[in-house]
UniProtKB/TrEMBL annotation, chain A:
PANTHER family: MYOTUBULARIN-RELATED, MYOTUBULARIN-RELATED PROTEIN 9. GO terms for cellular component: cytosol; endoplasmic reticulum; perinuclear region of cytoplasm; ruffle membrane. It comes from Alca torda (Razorbill). This is Myotubularin-related protein 9. Keywords: Acetylation, Cell membrane, Cell projection, Coiled coil, Cytoplasm, Endoplasmic reticulum, Membrane.
Automatic annotation (TrEMBL), chain B:
Gene3D superfamilies: Pleckstrin-homology domain (PH domain)/Phosphotyrosine-binding domain (PTB). Substrate binds at residues 267-268, 330-336. It comes from the Eukaryota. Residues 545-557 have a biased composition (Basic and acidic residues). Keywords: Coiled coil, Cytoplasm, Hydrolase, Lipid metabolism. It is found in: Cytoplasm; Endomembrane system. SMART domains: PTPc_motif (SM00404). This is MTMR7 protein. The keyword Cell division does not apply.
Length: 550, 650
């Protein structure tokens, strides 16, 4: 298929661009296969706006006489308005944008066409390999092994080719366990807590069904992670009620009788359309232009977004608490183990593991606990808050995770190497990107799409010093401790950087950020100067002494 | 009383056993057993209510709510003791004479001269001079010199030059409590001014020639503008109801060239109830997000804050952008008017956003113009219906602005919190009584100390590290977003959940940056010293003498700077919503049990309510959560000897 077929009108002049907090700009609009490009005609200060078609969530058109107006709502939550003279042009452009922003073939997406303009220092596709992770683990414990059981994605389609499992469990047993778990997602290692040797594992629900099936190998596998005489915790991310209902569909939960050393805790984390609706309501509240404070607060409340944040954080704190405080191992799962499970396991690691609070460590966490663990990014991030179509698979699961990280970052502003911008960047790229990183729903699909060969990794771009400097938190001081966030409502706030990003003036806050950076930079400069002088003095004194001795 | 248990609000499982003491000025709880004495001190004047709850098997619970939003829950074993404590506290918390208040016994060990200096720190005559008055349009009037015209006004009042004593007195007779229009702020760039008064006694048809002349004089004092805004800060309905009582608002037809405007800020009773409702939300034990947001909305608190701010923004705009003078009033002109005038001044003039300027602002718009501190904040036992968080709302408004303009204010959040605290503490004489007249009669300045001097002395603690006098945000008028940006107004947990340290960010950016700046300063000094020494050394090497002594110097220097380097790690807190962890085995978690204890080490502090350092540290620290380097102390931290596991409750 040629993109040109979809572009009915490639160019329109005298278009006016409206954005909140900016004066309207007049210029030329161009459509290409992957971008909507607007450039102002002013020669002196030409301004260009490049918008990926895949970033467009929905489009509305309106006419007043022959002046057409297109309102473009983006997945990054921005809303722009284009006034296009000429009804036909406007209709053509609108339908072209609509077609181009809803391409259904992945291989037509921009990452397959994008050619980087920067020098590739490090191939991001090879930056975070499971072998490296396992090597780190092997240096502290020998109780685990790397299993290649899923090499051809034959056992579990949503798992990566290699996984870390207890050493005492062989591949044969794993195969049996896989039959007993939803989507074959058998329990694998998620995190090893060096401080006390406790672990966090994740899986999907066991297929106990109504007649209480059991699987000896499954029991053996998870018991293999327990210390003698110790108990473990199973954190089920569904309410007891939901988990019980799942039995009717063949799913279920671990019965006490068969897992006597485990204590099961149910934490209700919502999924799918409930989350998607929550996002839609929240964004609607944030865009509400009414003058009424009560309405704002009640809409914020009704969206339930912060309730979801609180639930997810609480479950993650609980998992972390079990590991660090109770000295117990933990198994986390919900139904499929691809959504709420990953929110909990990844947030718990941020709380527990200082490495995850560095830029590199956080990237590694996203790769391990989201991409390799099989979070279906393509399904979940197909649409954002302005979607009209009610498709079943969209859900802002990853955005909720990033929001939770932001909440912890806000409570511990000096403990993270990255800043808020880093999280916002990840949100943007998960929904629309020139990089292939978030395409596909699991490693299996990515392998089939040959993404590493055909597209550029986000990490190749981010991990260059030019980009990294934008994402570094000037306040960062390595903090080797476990950080316990507060989950009280008073401590949780709306993530303005994402949700009010386009409808609040940010100039003064940006200035504060700059001021902060310059205070710290000046301090570092002085430190360097003082150290240099000290050295110089020391040298001169030694010289002097030597001369004296001579 | 012995064997009293102090409960923690966030977790019923945590309680400290200790002894309760009542002194003439404080309630003191001293915890048993611990090596470092953990103490909680509460000034009687901070006590807002005491509630005796139903006796349980473990004892008799006593709930003390404080005006600085601290809530203390005690369980006293014997019902009789509890009753005695209750009765004593009720009496102690409600003094009937000013002389019973703490400021008359508080002695910060300053001599007479220092005290007098302290009172001179804020000088309103100087302030009006700074604004540019008296000048060709404005003069000081001595018409109120013996409080003869208006007993709630100051003796020195600034009025238009063309307003004769006859006009002033005439106008005062037509205004509630004789609070005639007087100057609050003058903008010397364009001659526009903000004046304030009470409502006119217009009823349905009454008019007063002198009052009309007075308003005209105000308008004429701003020759660049041909009209005057008259802003009534009440909801229209309230103002209309007042007409039936012979009061009301200005009729545009009777006054030449005024534009009349209502701005609906609710009255003190609505505000009192609103705060009450919001505090109930803050006090909820493990509320859900919905409980909290719904309660916040239902309290209406943020709506009221926004109304006040919008009024201030309107006036600042009129003065700065339109160059039009404004007369502001409400009913008596001492609550809403004070709020709105001071917000507008703060927006207009960068001086009021400095530490000194902010003190001056409170002195000008609140203290001198007879804001009834005693009645509003219940310093003496009085009518509970007179109590209302009027200045609290202003202080919160300032905080909301600080959130929107992080570089615009010289002071930080702590400064606001401490001012709020001392408005209620009665430890300093500044906010006693209801008017200047009463304060002079009581000889406050001779018998008590000034808060401003105390804050000024400790100003290093109150600095906003992001403030720079030459920064663009510190120049000119602040222009916050007006409606519909409701989301700009946020719940202030730093104030209303001030004592629940567990709810706040565990690392403070402000403290961190302050420490960095302090270190920067030391580095600058050291750099100077090093440069000098280098020069000397270069000289001396030529002369080849006395190298050794310098080497010793240098090692001293190095020692000093390493201690400066250990500034980063603010203590963290282990705290979790234990309610949400139903499965915790009870045998474990002793660490947390001992973690949250209300204490304050007051023995070494002469200022028992607010030792700034312990206030800023989020005290609770888990042994396992300690920086392995052991360098987790800010240079300014003085709580080293306090236990690792204590939360500091001022």
């Amino acid at each position: 298929m040629e993109f040109a077929e979809l572009i009915k009108t490639p160019r329109a002049d005298n278009v006016a661009l409206h954005r909140p907090f900016y004066p309207a700009v007049e210029g030329t609009l161009c459509l290409t296969g992957h971008h909507l490009i607007f450039s102002s005609r002013r020669q002196d200060n030409a301004e260009e706006l490049w918008l990926l078609h895949s970033n467009i969530d929905s489009i509305e058109k309106r006419f007043v006489g022959s002046l057409g107006t297109i309102i473009i709502k983006c997945k990054d939550l921005r809303i722009i308005q284009l006034d296009i003279p000429g009804m036909e042009e406007c209709l053509n452009i609108a339908s072209s944008i609509e077609a181009l922003s809803t391409l259904d073939s992945v291989t037509l997406m921009y990452p397959f066409f994008y050619r980087p303009m920067f020098e590739i220092v490090e191939d991001g596709w090879r930056s975070f390999l499971p072998d490296q992770e396992f090597e780190l683990l092997s240096s502290v414990t020998d109780e685990w092994r790397l299993s290649c059981i899923n090499k051809e994605f034959s056992v579990c389609p949503s798992y990566p080719p290699v996984v870390i499992v207890p050493k005492s469990i062989d591949d044969e047993a794993l195969r049996k366990v896989a039959m007993f778990r939803h989507g074959s997602r058998f329990p694998v290692l998620s995190y090893y807590h060096k401080k006390n040797g406790m672990v966090m594992m994740r899986s999907s629900q066991p297929l106990t069904g109504t007649n209480g099936r059991r699987c000896k190998e499954d029991e053996k596998l998870i018991n293999a992670t327990l210390r003698p005489g110790k108990r473990g915790y199973i954190i089920d991310t569904r309410s007891l009620n939901v988990a019980q209902q799942a039995r009717a569909k063949g799913g279920g939960f671990e019965q006490e009788a068969h897992y006597p050393q485990w204590r099961r805790i149910h934490k209700c984390i919502e999924r799918f359309n409930i989350l998607q609706e929550s996002l839609i309501k929240l964004v609607e509240a944030c865009n509400d232009q009414s003058h009424n404070m009560d309405r704002w607060l009640s809409k914020l409340e009704a969206s339930n977004w912060l309730t979801h944040i609180k639930e997810i954080l609480t479950a993650a704190c609980l998992a972390a608490q079990c590991i660090d405080r109770e000295g117990a191992s933990v198994l986390v799962h919900g139904t499929e183990g691809t959504d709420s499970t990953l929110q909990v396991t990844s947030l718990a690691q941020i709380i527990l593991d200082p490495r995850c609070r560095t830029i590199r460590g956080f990237e590694s966490l996203v790769v391990r606990e989201w991409l390799q663990a099989g979070h279906p990014f393509q399904q979940r991030c197909a649409q954002s808050a302005y979607s009209n179509s009610k498709q079943k698979w969209e859900a802002p699961v990853f955005l909720l995770f990033l929001d939770c990280v932001w909440q912890i970052l806000r409570q511990f502003p000096c403990s993270f190497e990255f800043n808020e911008q880093f999280l916002i960047m990840l949100f943007e790229h998960a929904y629309a990107s020139q990089f292939g990183t978030f395409l596909g729903n699991n490693e299996n699909e990515r392998f089939k799409l040959k993404l590493p060969q055909k597209t550029m990794s986000l990490w190749s771009w981010v991990n260059r010093s030019e980009e990294l400097s934008k994402f570094q938190n000037p306040l960062f001081e390595a903090n080797s401790l476990v950080i316990w966030p507060s989950v009280a409502p008073q401590s949780l706030q709306l993530w303005e950087g994402v949700f009010l990003r386009w409808n609040r003036p940010s100039k003064f806050l940006d200035e504060a950020q700059e001021e902060m950076i310059s205070i710290i930079r000046y301090n570092k400069e002085l430190q360097a100067k003082v150290n240099a002088l000290r050295r110089q003095l020391a040298e001169m004194e030694t010289d002097g002494r030597m001369q004296e001795n001579l | 009383v012995e064997n009293v248990r102090l409960l923690d609000r966030l977790s019923s499982r945590k309680a400290a056993l200790g002894t309760l003491y009542l002194t003439a000025t404080h309630v003191i709880f001293v915890e048993n057993g611990s090596e470092a004495r953990k103490e909680t001190w509460v000034l009687h004047s901070q006590i807002s209510s005491i509630e005796k709850q139903a006796t349980t098997a473990t004892g008799c619970p006593l709930l003390i709510r404080c005006k600085n939003f601290q809530v203390i829950q005690l369980v006293i074993p014997q019902e009789r003791d509890c009753h005695d404590v209750y009765i004593s506290l009720i009496r102690l918390a409600r003094p009937v004479k000013y002389e019973e208040l703490y400021c008359f016994s508080f002695n910060p060990k300053l001599d007479k001269e220092e005290r007098e200096q302290g009172w001179k720190l804020v000088d309103l005559t100087e302030e009006y001079n700074r604004m540019g008055v008296p000048n060709n349009y404005w003069q000081i009037s001595d018409v109120n010199r013996d409080y003869g015209v208006c007993d709630s006004y100051p003796t020195e009042v600034y009025v238009p030059k063309s307003a004769t004593a006859h006009i002033i007195v005439g106008s005062s007779k037509f205004r509630s409590r004789r609070r005639f229009p007087a100057l609050s702020y003058y903008c010397k760039d364009n001659n526009a001014s903000i004046c304030r008064s009470s409502q006119p006694l217009s009823g349905f048809s009454a008019r007063c020639l002198e009052d009309e002349q007075m308003l005209q004089a105000i308008r004429k004092a701003n020759p660049g503008s041909d009209f005057l805004y008259v802003v009534d800060t009440r909801p229209k309905l309230n103002a209309m109801a007042n007409r039936a009582a012979g009061k009301g608002y200005e009729n545009e037809d009777n006054y030449s060239n005024i534009k009349f405007q209502f701005i609906g800020i609710e009255n003190i009773h609505v505000m009192r109830n609103s705060l009450q409702k919001m505090l109930e939300v803050c006090e909820l034990k493990s509320p859900s997000m919905s409980d909290f947001l719904w309660g916040l909305e239902n309290s209406g608190w943020l709506k009221h804050i926004k109304a006040i701010m919008d009024a201030g923004i309107f006036i600042a705009k009129a003065v700065a952008e339109e160059g039009v003078s404004v007369l502001v009033h409400c009913s008596d002109g001492w609550d809403r008017t004070a709020q709105v005038c001071s917000v507008a001044s703060l927006l207009l003039d960068p001086y009021y956003r400095t530490m000194k300027g902010f003190m001056v602002l409170i002195e000008k718009d609140w203290v001198s113009f007879g804001h009834k501190f005693n009645h509003r904040y219940g310093n003496l036992d009085g009518d509970p219906k007179e109590i209302s968080p009027v200045i609290d709302q202003f202080i919160e408004g300032v905080w909301q602005l600080m959130e929107q303009f992080p570089c615009a204010f010289e002071f930080n959040e702590r400064f606001l919190i401490h001012i709020q605290h001392h408005i209620y503490s009665c430890q300093f004489g500044n906010f006693l009584c209801n008017s200047q007249k009463e304060r002079r009669e009581l000889k406050i300045q001779e018998r008590t100390y000034s808060l401003w001097a105390h804050l000024w002395k400790n100003r290093a603690d109150y600095l906003n590290p992001l403030y720079r006098p030459d920064h663009s945000q510190t120049q000119g008028t602040l222009r916050p977003q007006m409606a519909p940006c409701n989301f700009l107004y946020k719940f202030w947990s730093g104030m209303y959940n001030r004592f629940e340290k567990g709810l706040h960010p565990r690392q403070s950016v402000t403290d961190y940056l302050m420490a960095v700046k302090e270190e920067t300063q030391q580095l600058e000094e050291e750099l100077e010293v090093l440069r000098e020494r280098l020069m000397n050394l270069q000289k001396s090497q030529i002369n080849d003498n006395k190298v050794k002594s310098k080497r010793q110097d240098r090692s001293k220097e190095l020692g000093l700077s390493t201690s400066n380097n250990s500034l980063a790690n603010t203590p963290q807190e282990y705290s979790n919503d234990l309610k949400s962890f139903p499965s915790r085995s009870p045998s474990q978690g002793d660490e947390e049990d001992s973690a949250l204890i209300l204490t304050q080490d007051n023995l070494k502090s002469s200022d028992p309510d607010l030792s700034a350092n312990s206030d800023q540290e989020s005290g609770v620290e888990d042994l396992s959560c300690r920086s392995p380097s052991g360098g987790g102390c800010l240079p300014s931290e003085d709580s080293g000897k306090d236990s690792d596991e204590a939360v500091f409750l001022a």
